Amino acid sequence: MINIKQNMLWPTMVFEIEMPDYNKIKKDLVEYIKVCKVEEIPLKNGIGPHEQRHKKFLQESYPTLFANNDNEVFNKVKEFCMQMTLEVAQGVNKDHTDTSDWIIRPSDSWYHITKDKGYHDIHTHAFSPWCGIFYVDKGDSDNETQNGINRFYNNMEFPILGLGNDYYGDYFDVDIEDGKLIVFPGNLGHSALPYYGDKDRIVISFNTEITDKKMLDNNESK
């Protein structure tokens, strides 16, 4: 009998984290997002208020949202997003390297205000290790009917006969809830399925950069 050894490689992880007592600040955060000023910069990574074929019926800010620090409620959400994403990155890597001096910063950050019939087709954030989506107001999104949900895809472009679902993986749908943060690796394909509703669907999205303070200190001392 021939022995066949199976090796499980490179799991893909998507993390869901609920912000405690979010309902107490939701109204103020929604009001702030709708009136906040976001610094205008040249088009970067396709993010910004520009006409794009794979995004329709949504209002997207420039990717400098987290540069704002003039609102206490917004700062709480921003700090929650950054701290939880750092903890995810540290937790995933702690068995392989010393993560105690890791520093995280948002490389891009923006909001989406999705209108009726709005959607964002499949894409990746390939140059970011960890990315996040924070649900400010799910509007009329519905998990059961998949209205306006976020979907994550296997990175293979199409199924291949003989692999089967255990190897191909298909897709994963996130249950949208106000105050929930989704943290995921930037190379993972994802989309926002078409949204139908009278209310605005509002999310904050961000990309991150992670550096090691020890390495920075060593470079500065040279």
Describe this structure in words.
- This protein has 222 residues and is an alpha+beta fold.
- The chain has helices at residues 26-35, 72-93, 165-168, 213-221; strands at residues 15-18, 55-60, 102-123, 130-137, 150-153, 171-173, 180-185, 190-195, 201-212.
- Strands 1, 2, 3, 4, 5, 6, 7, 8 and 9 form a nine-stranded antiparallel sheet that branches.
- It is globular and about 70 Å long.
Strand count, sense and barrel status of the largest sheet are: 9 strands, antiparallel
- State which percent range the strand residues make up: 25-35%
C-alpha Rg (nearest Å) = 19 Å
What is the count of helical runs?
Answer: 4
Poorly predicted regions? none
Distance between the termini: 60 Å
Please tally the β strands and state the result. Answer: 9
**Residue share in helices?**
10-25%
Which structural class do the helices and strands define?
alpha+beta
Which term fits the overall shape? globular
The whole-number mean of residue pLDDT values reads 91
The SSE order reads: EHEHEEEHEEEEH
